[in-house]
């Protein structure tokens, strides 16, 4: 079952009064004055004289310009609101609403700073050493230990140290170890990627790649567009860098609304867009190729860089790896970020960025922040990739994760109330549940945590603490009797909240 409703929170498919045409009225009009004024403004909006997102003159200015009473102007503005053409923003005035090609009204929230509910730090805390074992369940989005090629990597580490003792005595290049980058370029050939070793910069995981891209492209106070809901560490990073965010409506199945992104980037001073187009976190959404191409072309034409996070691209359950947006990038406008932390070795913390035409800025940021990435870790992973073990390992891992996801979906159908909606991702580790509006995921999180069951409450994924009635569950933990018992217990806690 799909969560289209979520999307409809933003994208109002029925516009009040939108189907009505508003005729232009000349001087002989016998209509009330407020309707004449509303019609005039509506005509200007339709002709795009007044543009989406633009602020209308204030009530007082309009009163003076048109020689009307304040209450007539107020009535006219209310009428425009009823027609869905303008919206009132507290203490800011009236603004022309954003409207997609198809005539849908898009309610884009104003840029916001990222607020973090202190309770949510408990989620981060659970990653600390004493909690790691206990707080499993449905929280972490990374391959389980048993499915990682740890023994093989152990042997390769010893071998690398024996053959290249210099790896320990050298700082390494800021952009990374060339042998490793060659292997990454080979890997990208699977999705038709043309990544060049010299162009890549190796990072400490995708998270450092995102950090470097943001530092290279923005200043504190700038606005960045993100999916809504968005990955919480990305939100924390934006907060740490003093950036504000515009949340773009995102469909749980097909990803970001291209219409909304098109409108948002038309008027707002957006300095960069960040997307997770393949099996996003927390929705598990997958953008269709046509949408990826459209976004790549649109942002390139507007000169707005796109930071692409493809950390889950390899975790497809179907036959073919989905292409990243980078595959449609013709002008170097996409800064492509990924890693081997989810699928091969979380502890080695190796990721990379192809910064497109922003390479020199990103390289400077790498040098300034951590200088370089541990070379030994890169050398070990280069050996692993070179050995040909990766495709075999990934086939096994993908099969396991797909079957764990199926176990979770079957369990949800059995143990959760029938009105709970959830996504059915085609890849990745996570799915998104939507409960009725009055449900409190923070209460569920607190109760489950006391019993050692991990999950991710919805507000973690919103800069304003929205999505309180939503929960992200991960299928990364192997399906077992213990895992099943945890899901049964979660279902009970959900029902208790329904009853109480
Ligand atoms: C969307 C997304 N991006 C980035 C990361 C972090 O990746 P890495 O471990 O490569 O830094 C995660 C981890 O959960 C994620 O979900």
From TrEMBL:
CDD domains according to UniProt: AAT_like (cd00609), WHTH_GntR (cd07377)
Keywords (A to Z) from UniProt: Aminotransferase, DNA-binding, Pyridoxal phosphate, Transcription, Transcription regulation, Transferase
An MF annotation (GO) of this entry: transaminase activity
InterPro entries, alphabetized: Aminotransferase_I/II_large (IPR004839), HTH_trans_reg/aminotransferase (IPR051446), PyrdxlP-dep_Trfase (IPR015424), PyrdxlP-dep_Trfase_major (IPR015421), Tscrpt_reg_HTH_GntR (IPR000524), WH-like_DNA-bd_sf (IPR036388), WH_DNA-bd_sf (IPR036390)
Protein's UniProt keywords contain Transcription: yes
Transferase listed as a keyword: yes
Species, as recorded: Aquitalea magnusonii
Family named by the database record: In the C-terminal section; belongs to the class-I pyridoxal-phosphate-dependent aminotransferase family.
HTH gntR-type domain span: 31-99
Protein name, as recorded: Putative 8-amino-7-oxononanoate synthase
Entries under Pfam families matching the protein: Aminotran_1_2, GntR
């Amino acid at each position: 079952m799909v969560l289209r409703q979520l999307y409809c929170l933003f994208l109002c498919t029925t516009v009040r009064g939108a189907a009505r045409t508003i005729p232009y009225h000349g001087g002989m009009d016998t209509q009330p004055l407020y309707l004449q004024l509303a019609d005039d403004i509506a005509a200007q909006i339709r002709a795009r004289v007044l543009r989406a997102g633009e602020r209308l003159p204030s009530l007082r200015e309009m009163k003076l310009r048109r020689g009307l009473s304040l209450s007539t102007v107020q009535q006219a503005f209310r009428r425009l609101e009823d027609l869905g053409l303008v919206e009132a923003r507290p203490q800011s005035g009236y603004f022309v609403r954003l409207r997609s090609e198809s005539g849908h009204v898009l309610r884009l929230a104003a840029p916001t700073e990222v607020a973090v509910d202190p309770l949510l730090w408990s989620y981060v805390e659970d990653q600390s050493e004493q909690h790691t074992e206990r707080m499993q369940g449905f929280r972490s989005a990374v391959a389980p230990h048993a499915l990682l090629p740890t023994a093989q990597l152990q042997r390769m580490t010893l071998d690398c140290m024996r053959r290249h003792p210099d790896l320990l005595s050298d700082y390494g290049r800021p952009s990374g170890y060339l042998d490793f980058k060659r292997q990454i370029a080979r890997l990208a050939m699977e999705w038709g990627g043309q990544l060049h070793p010299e162009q890549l910069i190796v990072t400490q995981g995708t998270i450092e790649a995102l950090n470097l891209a943001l530092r290279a492209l923005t200043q504190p106070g700038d606005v960045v567009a993100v999916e809504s809901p968005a990955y919480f560490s990305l939100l924390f990073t934006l907060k740490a860098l003093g950036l504000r965010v515009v949340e773009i409506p995102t469909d749980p199945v097909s990803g970001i609304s291209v219409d909304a992104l098109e409108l948002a980037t038309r008027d707002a001073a957006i300095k960069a867009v960040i997307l997770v187009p393949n099996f996003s976190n927390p929705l598990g959404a997958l953008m269709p190729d046509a949408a990826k191409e459209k976004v790549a072309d649109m942002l390139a034409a507007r000169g707005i860089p796109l930071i692409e996070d493809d950390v889950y691209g390899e975790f497809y359950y179907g036959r073919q790896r989905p292409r990243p947006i980078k595959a449609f990038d013709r002008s170097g406008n996409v800064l492509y970020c990924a890693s081997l932390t989810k699928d091969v070795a979380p502890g080695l913390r190796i990721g990379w960025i192809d910064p497109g035409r922003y390479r020199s800025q990103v390289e400077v940021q790498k040098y300034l922040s951590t200088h370089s990435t541990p070379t030994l870790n890169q050398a070990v992973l280069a050996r692993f990739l070179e050995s040909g073990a990766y495709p075999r390992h990934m086939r096994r891992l993908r099969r396991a994760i797909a079957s764990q996801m199926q176990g979770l979906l079957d369990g949800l159908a059995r143990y959760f109330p029938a009105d709970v909606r959830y996504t059915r991702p085609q890849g990745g580790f996570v799915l998104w549940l939507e409960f009725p509006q009055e449900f409190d995921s923070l209460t569920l999180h607190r109760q489950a945590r006391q019993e050692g069951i991990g999950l991710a409450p919805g507000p973690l994924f919103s800069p304003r603490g929205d999505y309180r009635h939503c929960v992200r569950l991960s299928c990364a933990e192997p399906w077992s009797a213990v895992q099943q018992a945890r899901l049964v217990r979660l279902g009970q806690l959900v029902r208790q909240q329904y009853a109480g």
